[in-house]
From TrEMBL:
<feature type="domain" description="Lipase-like C-terminal">
    <location>
        <begin position="76"/>
        <end position="190"/>
    </location>
</feature>
<dbReference type="InterPro" id="IPR056304">
    <property type="entry name" value="Lip-like_C"/>
</dbReference>
<dbReference type="GO" id="GO:0005840">
    <property type="term" value="C:ribosome"/>
</dbReference>
<dbReference type="InterPro" id="IPR029058">
    <property type="entry name" value="AB_hydrolase_fold"/>
</dbReference>
<protein>
    <recommendedName>
        <fullName>Lipase-like C-terminal domain-containing protein</fullName>
    </recommendedName>
</protein>
<dbReference type="GO" id="GO:0006412">
    <property type="term" value="P:translation"/>
</dbReference>
<dbReference type="InterPro" id="IPR018130">
    <property type="entry name" value="Ribosomal_uS2_CS"/>
</dbReference>
<dbReference type="Pfam" id="PF24708">
    <property type="entry name" value="Lip_C"/>
</dbReference>
<dbReference type="GO" id="GO:0003735">
    <property type="term" value="F:structural constituent of ribosome"/>
</dbReference>
Length: 469
């Protein structure tokens, strides 16, 4: 195949990918705005009715009442979103977890940076729960060229959080690595002013399509293999993402950021701060900002980046670990791996599922870890490789056990072991759109919440639960 033909095919693929991704993004954003406008109209009508004496304010559950539920008597469940995700209150109240948080009255859904690094998101998650001003760390902030401090949580969403009042964590995609890094930071005592933190603040970690070992999609989207995603190819889907997110933060429109935020405020990219010259430094010269220093999520999603993270992250013997690895590919009779059905894969993911089946690590480039094999990484869900999602494997294998149901072959579950299941689903089956997940959506979340409430309770709570039942 000639160079010109390959270039034409590459340009066509990029055009299609960009159109699909941008179209879906505008659809979600437009739906959020429409829902917000509709809610405002309904609220105005209800207010008018109440003013006429026909009805009273029917709002239920204020923030204070919701906080009162988190009294430490029962550990809360914290749902942590992945890349391009969002927490409660964003996008006109759209639920990233497709309403799964409604299954339990002690669930928190934090809004973290959607494109920020695993490190920065782990720091934000701590202060979201405990309260205070987000401290990204002096050394990290200096090395990555951003402000040390971020937003302030006047009152943490779970201020009681400590070893005596732990929490369960459920992470989707990159959110699983955020939770693991947070637990390691708690073990290391890495939060100034909080000297008594411990890994035991985390009762359980549940991963939904977790990015434990990186993804070959990061390279397909434009991350350079040679430096583990620290730089991007000149023309690629991630370049469009880079330009869009920089312009979004540079414009700094409050009404726009109320709906969605990439999370780069601590890099100080607003037009009010840097002006047009600063935009050129960030966007063209690449002399500042997250994309210049590599302090954003994509380098953490490469195989090399995940290996760097995993080298310092432990699986702790006192914590329960569960993992649901998704797969939407199958083997043909001739041994080829292909997407398993066009209609069962989200339009955002089908093309990438096919490309990930066929992707090969560049010849002549040092492999990302000892024992790497291309065939291990063929099965995927359109965003992550199934091999990467079961449990931490790179650079060292963590204790794990495959299971077919909620148990472990009739044996009681043990902490310090990753219990994983392979789920036939694409990467978005359990987020954004509940109907696409079908019955499996409820089965998975019911299993997660049942594990959190029955299998992972501390001894002091397990006894009381048995008495109630």
């Amino acid at each position: 195949m000639s160079k010109w033909v390959r270039a034409a095919l590459g340009a066509a693929e990029l055009l299609v990918s960009a159109a699909v991704h941008l179209g879906y993004a505008f659809y979600i954003f437009g739906a959020a705005v429409a829902a917000d406008v509709a809610a405002s109209i309904v609220k105005g009508i209800m207010a008018g009715v109440a003013a006429g004496g026909v009805a009273k304010d029917v709002a239920v559950g204020s923030e204070d009442e919701a906080a009162a539920l988190l009294d430490g008597a029962m550990p809360p469940i914290v749902l942590v979103h992945g890349i391009f995700g969002f927490g409660k209150g964003r996008l006109g109240g759209l639920s990233y977890f497709a309403g799964a948080e409604e299954k339990d009255d002690r669930v928190l859904v934090p809004d973290l940076g959607s494109l920020t690094s695993v490190h920065d998101r782990a720091r934000e998650l701590f202060y979201y729960l405990k309260g205070g001003r987000v401290d990204y760390g002096e050394a990290h902030s200096a090395a990555c060229g951003h402000a040390r401090f971020g937003r302030t949580y006047e009152r943490g969403h779970y201020p009681l959080w400590d070893e005596a009042h732990p929490a369960h964590f459920v992470g989707h995609s990159a959110g699983a690595q955020v939770v693991r890094l947070l637990q390691q930071m708690l073990h290391d005592g890495a939060f100034p002013g909080h000297a008594a933190t411990s890994e035991r603040w985390v009762l359980s970690v549940t991963s939904l399509s977790g990015a434990f070992n990186g993804s070959t999609r990061a390279y397909i989207d434009g991350a350079r293999v040679e430096d583990g995603g620290r730089s991007l190819r000149p023309v690629c889907l991630l370049q469009i993402c880079r330009v869009g997110s920089v312009l979004y933060h540079w414009l700094d429109l409050p009404w726009l950021k109320r709906y969605y935020d990439f999370g780069f405020d601590h890099f100080g990219m607003s037009r009010r701060l840097v002006g047009a010259r600063g935009l050129a430094d960030i966007l063209i010269a690449g002399r500042r900002g997250p994309f210049a220093t590599g302090d954003w999520i994509v380098p953490d999603l490469t195989i090399q980046g995940a290996a760097r993270l995993n080298a310092r992250l432990r699986t702790f013997p006192g914590t329960f670990y569960f993992s649901y690895a998704s797969r939407r590919t199958a083997r043909t009779r001739r041994g080829a791996t292909v997407p398993s059905g066009l209609l069962r894969i989200h339009p955002l993911l089908f093309l990438r599922a096919l490309q990930m089946c066929r992707w090969r690590y560049p010849a002549g480039t040092p492999p990302p870890y000892e024992g790497y094999r291309d065939e291990d990484w063929e099965d995927n869900d359109g965003a992550l490789n199934s091999f990467s999602m079961t449990h931490p494997r790179v650079p060292d294998e963590h204790p794990s056990m495959p299971v077919d149901d909620d148990g472990a072959g009739g044996r009681p579950l043990q902490p310090g072991v990753w219990y994983y299941r392979i789920v036939e689903a694409d990467h978005m089956a359990f987020v954004i759109n509940r109907r696409r997940g079908g019955v499996q959506f409820d089965l998975v979340y019911d299993s997660i919440f049942r594990n959190c409430r029955r299998l992972c309770l501390p001894d002091r709570l397990a006894g009381s639960l048995q008495k109630q039942s």
